[in-house]
Design a protein that fits this description.
Largest sheet: 11 strands, mixed
Number of strands: 36
Radius of gyration: 27 Å
Helix content: 10-25%
Structural class: alpha+beta
Strand content: 25-35%
């Protein structure tokens, strides 16, 4: 054991403040100069993370305090990114559970904490935001203990120390009445309670790869905790692949993490989390070792994906206008690269050329991948999510989830009606002064698009959390979209004259001056069927009508759907066309004759 090192993961539900807490630990641990200007939520380095306000990728840093190294892994709180959480559990020896003093433990808190307790990790609980209005840290303290019991924590885990404080204001206290000074009590608790890493300094070098980074100068970097021995630049080691084969490698760089910096190091020691370079190819879950006959280290099992979507080559008439990466080969290479760094993403070839199946834990996880690809210059077509079903004893099984809702009391009737339509079964309901908490079980299919319905029903005040439960018999048909679409019959520029008449037939997704094409979805039809329309039609001029007539047209502002909303809005026979500058909804078959032919084929199969 190396007594000078502590390895710790911070886990919490979305928006409970763990990334802000990491900022404070870095500041008070001396990672930044006193006069250094540092961005808020410095660990959320991806543009998407800053825009969405959530952590997507697990990242590691370290605080050097009192001659000790505290390695901290900041993990995602959203269940869709659970693969990021699961694979870092092998790197740490303890976890810090951050819980909001008002909201208490949420669904993703359960998910991540359950994984940590199953791995035997020792927890520290930090009840955050105690200065928040209407916070109740004592009640949350009891709720966390109840959660420990529910998740079958050991006696040692149940006896976890509790601290209270505010990450935003930079203080932690052991008792609620203590003065609000700094984060020192939390740092002291980490050193005293989290055990040093179990690593044998005298053993041959061994390391399990738990994460992968990329550097423009040295290529792929393998990140993990050194289980035994040490490693230096220039060492010849073995890489043990998942299939058991071994390759000889030479270490060209050793990296350590301090604050927000990645620093070159002469030596990687047992128990420390380091990065190693010198590989043309490397994969998460592989083992690096000094001797040829050393056994491979076991890798944590990842929960299987529950949804699947199609990624297809853009075959629309506007292909290549906004993106430069549009071919089947380029899309496949990008998906393969994502698969190497994201263990919860699965990519398969489909029976159709240029179409790939991408499976993951949730629609948001795939939406984030699509958004990243857009920003990198890709054009791609994406389908509506479908759940992955299993067959057992002649029965079709589908994934179900536990769902937690908190909604205003006056909206409970409409929310329960939508839940029932989506095959949700309410198991528990609790009434509070101004809100109602609902616990239900629902098919994963029923959750696709539900969050947006909830926002509309509750005027944005509804809160939902969900967690994979198990596979159960198929729940029957679920109708999630009751409306049809307005489908363009022509290619060209949408005109005010045409849209003025069309907006009476439904809600428009476009405005005048935008280019449209045949088969593109330009609006929503209140009725359940699709309505062909021509948004490019121009006013015919005559001797009687002057060109000035109609200049006073007032168009209703169009509905602009986000990428996540678009993916969950479209029907099974539709695609989202995602390009660097545009999001378009379209039919899979642009030609109406092809659509009719395909519908007949599907009806014949049914």
């Amino acid at each position: 054991m190396n007594q000078n090192i502590r390895n710790l993961a911070i886990i919490a539900h979305v928006d409970h403040g763990k990334t802000t807490l990491v900022d404070q630990l870095l500041r008070q641990g001396g990672a930044f100069r006193a006069n250094q200007v540092v961005a808020e939520r410095v660990m959320d380095s991806m543009d998407l993370e800053r825009e969405k306000g959530i952590t997507i990728k697990a990242k590691n840093t370290s605080v050097h305090w009192r001659d000790k190294i505290i390695n901290i892994v900041d993990t995602p709180g959203h269940a869709d990114f659970g693969g990021e959480v699961e694979r870092v559990m092998k790197m740490v020896d303890g976890v810090m559970l951050v819980v909001d003093a008002y909201d208490g433990p949420q669904a993703q808190t359960r998910f991540v904490l359950r994984k940590a307790l199953q791995h035997g990790l020792r927890p520290i609980v930090f009840i955050n935001k105690i200065d928040r209005e209407n916070s109740n840290p004592k009640k949350v303290h009891d709720q966390v203990l109840e959660l420990f019991l529910e998740l079958h924590a050991t006696e040692e885990q149940f006896a976890a120390p509790f601290l209270y404080g505010s990450a935003r204001d930079g203080f932690a206290v052991r008792e609620l009445g203590d003065p609000h000074k700094d984060m020192i009590p939390l740092l002291e608790t980490i050193l005293s309670y989290i055990p040093p890493p179990e690593a044998d300094e005298s053993a041959p070098f061994t390391m399990l790869i738990s994460n992968i980074a990329y550097d423009d100068y040295v290529g792929r970097i393998a990140i993990g905790k050194i289980i035994g021995g040490q490693v230096t630049t220039g060492d010849q080691i073995y890489r043990v692949l998942k299939n058991g084969t071994r390759e000889r490698c030479k270490i060209t760089k050793v990296f350590e993490y301090s604050g927000t910096q990645t620093n070159d190091s002469a030596l990687g020691i047992a128990g420390n989390i380091v990065g190693l370079a010198g590989f043309t190819d490397i994969d998460i879950g592989e083992t690096l070792c000094a001797l040829e006959d050393q056994p491979a280290l076991p890798f944590v099992e990842i929960d299987p994906p529950t949804i699947r979507m199609e990624f297809a080559v853009n075959d629309g008439p506007f292909v290549g206008r906004e993106g430069k990466l549009v071919t089947s080969r380029q899309i496949r290479e990008r998906l393969d690269r994502e698969k190497k760094g994201n263990v919860s993403i699965f990519v398969e070839e489909s029976e159709r050329a240029g179409v790939y199946y991408v499976s993951a834990r949730g629609a948001m996880q795939i939406a984030v991948l699509v958004e990243q690809m857009r920003r990198e210059g890709y054009e791609v077509l994406v389908s509506r999510p479908v759940v992955i079903t299993h067959s057992e004893n002649g029965k079709t099984l589908e994934p179900f989830e536990s769902l937690w809702l908190e909604v205003p009391e006056e909206t409970i009737g409409s929310v329960m009606k939508v839940l029932s339509a989506r095959k949700g079964a309410i198991s528990q309901m609790e009434t509070h002064p101004h809100s109602v908490t609902i616990e239900a079980t629902i098919p994963t299919r029923g959750l696709i698009g539900f969050e947006f319905d909830l926002m509309n029903l509750t005027n944005g005040r509804g809160v939902m959390s969900h967690l994979f439960l198990e596979y159960r018999p198929h729940a029957g048909e679920i109708t999630s979209r009751l409306t049809g679409t307005l489908v363009s019959t022509d290619t060209g520029v949408a005109t005010s004259y045409a849209l003025d008449q069309l907006q009476e037939r439904g809600k428009l997704f476009i405005t005048a001056g935008e280019e449209v094409y045949k088969g593109m979805i330009v609006g929503e039809n209140p009725r359940a069927d699709d309505l062909p329309i021509n948004p490019t039609r121009e006013k015919q001029l005559s001797n009687v009508r002057s060109k000035g007539e109609g200049k006073g047209i007032q168009l209703t502002p169009p509905i602009r759907l986000t990428l996540e909303r678009s993916i969950e809005y479209i029907a099974p026979d539709e695609y989202v066309e995602a390009t660097p500058k545009s999001l378009r909804l379209r039919k899979k078959f642009l030609n109406p004759e092809d659509r009719k032919r395909n519908a007949k084929q599907l009806a014949g199969v049914a």
